[in-house]
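Duplicate of earlier report; Thioredoxin family protein input re-posted below.
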Amino acid sequence: MGISGTTIGSYAPDFEIPGIDGAVHHLARYLERFRAVGVIVMCNHCPYVQMYLARLAQIQVEFAEQGFTLIGINANDESQFPADSFEQMKSFAVEQRLNFPYLRDVTQDVARSFGAECTPQAFLIDQTGVLRYSGAIDDNPQHPGAVKHSYLRDAITQLLSGNEIVTTLTTPVGCSVKWRLA
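Output:
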C-alpha cells in the first residue's frame, strides 16, 4: 500500500463509528452476521464515487443473499469539504438511494488504519476479520460497459465460494482522501 495501513492477510481494524441511520456501527457486529464485508472508503462529492454508485448498489444486491454487505465510510475533512458533512451524507444517501450503511469517520482513524488513499477504495474482509482484498472496484470508472476486470466482484465471488482470491491488491483510482490539515 502507498501509505501505512492494514496489509492483505492481516486483521482489519475494528471500528465503532456513527451511521447516517443514527446508530453506531461496529465492524465486529457485522462480522458476526455476515460471511464477508466490503468496506468502501467514499464521500459525497468525488466524481469517481458517483461513477461507481450504481455498480456498488448492484454488488450489494448481487451478494446480499450470500451473506455479504457493503459499508460506505466517509472520512473526508468536512471543514475543507462541507459537501462531505454528516448532514450532507444523509441527503446524499437518500438522493442516491444507497442500499448499504453509510458511516462517518470524523477522526479519520478508521481510514488511516485501513491505509485508505482515495475515494472510492474497497477493502474486503472475511468473516474472521482478515483483510483479503484492497484496491479498485474495477478497471474502468468511466465506462461500466468496458470493464475487463471486476476486481471487487471477483474477490467477493472467490471468497464466498471458498476459493483463493486471485487478485488481492490493486491500485485504487479516484480522488484523494481529504485529510485534516495539522
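The beta strands are 16-18, 24-26, 36-41, 68-74, 102-104, 118-119, 121-126, 131-135, 175-176.

Merging into the original ticket.
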